[in-house]
Amino acid sequence: MEITFYKYQGTGNDFVVIDNRDLSFPRENTKLVNFLCDRRFGIGADGLMLLNPSDTYDFTMVYYNSDGTESSMCGNGGRCLVAFAHKLEIFKNETTFDAVDGLHYASYQDGITNLQMIDVDTVEVYKTHCFLNTGSPHHVQLVENIGNYNVKNNGSEIRYGAPYFKEGTNVNFVESIGEGAFRVRTYERGVEDETLACGTGVTAVAIAMFEQKQTTNTKIPLKVEGGELEVSFTPTKNGYKDVFLKGPATFVFKGTINYNE
Ligand SMILES: N[C@H](CCC[C@H](N)C(=O)O)C(=O)O
C-alpha cells in the first residue's frame, strides 16, 4: 500500500498528517500508525492525524499517539491540522472542526494558528500538583531548575503510578521564568517520552498557574523546548472559558511511503 502524507510540526511537537476525506485510511490499523510514526523504520512523529470529512463542519480531526492508539485531543496537532486544512483551501481565515472532545473554532494567518480549546470547569489542586483536563488529562507540577530535571524518569513514574495507572495522564513540569511567564517540559502519554511541546499540556499549565495564583495574567506566554506558545482564557465563577492556544504550525514536507502488512 502506498500512502501520501504531509509532515507538520508545532513548536517541535511533530505529526504525520493524512488527507482522509475519501475515508480510505484503515482507521483501526494500530500497527500501521505505529509504523508511520516510527523514527527509524517509518516517517517519524509524536502522533498522526487524519483529516476526515464532516457533514456539518469544515472537517473532522482523528488523533493517534505514536504508539498507534487513537487518543484524546491534541492541541498542537489541532493547530497543525488547521494549517493543513488552510493549505488544502478548505477555509480562508477561520474554521470550525469536529474532534474527539467536541467542536473547535480556529483562525489561521501567516503560519500562526489560534485554536479554541474546550472550557475547563474543574481544576483539582493538591499539595504537590494540579490535575485538569484540557481535552487530554494533565498532571501539572512546579519544579526548580527545570533545565536539569529528569523529565522522562520522573514523568514516567507519575504517568504509570497512582492514581493514573494504565490509562495514565500526561505530566507537565513547570518553572516560573518571571513576569507571569513559565517554562514547561512535558512527558506525553502514548509517546512515553518527553516531547518538545504539548499543546493541551501548556493550556493546562497556564490555567493551573492562574488557579494557584502564580500569576494574575489571563494571557500567558509559555516557553517550551521547541519554541514559544501563548494561552489565553476568561476566568468565570465555575471554571475557565474562551480558552485559546496560539502558536506556529509549520509544514515540513510531503511524501509517499510504502507499507506491506
Ligand atoms: N499524548 C496526549 C495527546 C496529545 C497531546 C499533545 N501532543 C498536545 O499537543 O496536546 C494524550 O494521549 O493524552
From TrEMBL:
SUPFAM superfamilies: Diaminopimelate epimerase-like
Residues under site feature: Could be important to modulate the pK values of the two catalytic cysteine residues: H138, E188
Pfam families noted in UniProt: DAP_epimerase
Residues given in the record as substrate binding sites: N13, N65, G75, N76, N170, E188, R189, G199, T200
Keyword terms: Amino-acid biosynthesis, Cytoplasm, Isomerase, Lysine biosynthesis
Catalytic reaction(s) noted: (2S,6S)-2,6-diaminopimelate = meso-2,6-diaminopimelate
InterPro entries: DAP_epimerase_AS (IPR018510), DAP_epimerase_DapF (IPR001653)
Subunit structure: Homodimer.
HAMAP family, sorted: DAP_epimerase
Protein name as it appears in the record: Diaminopimelate epimerase
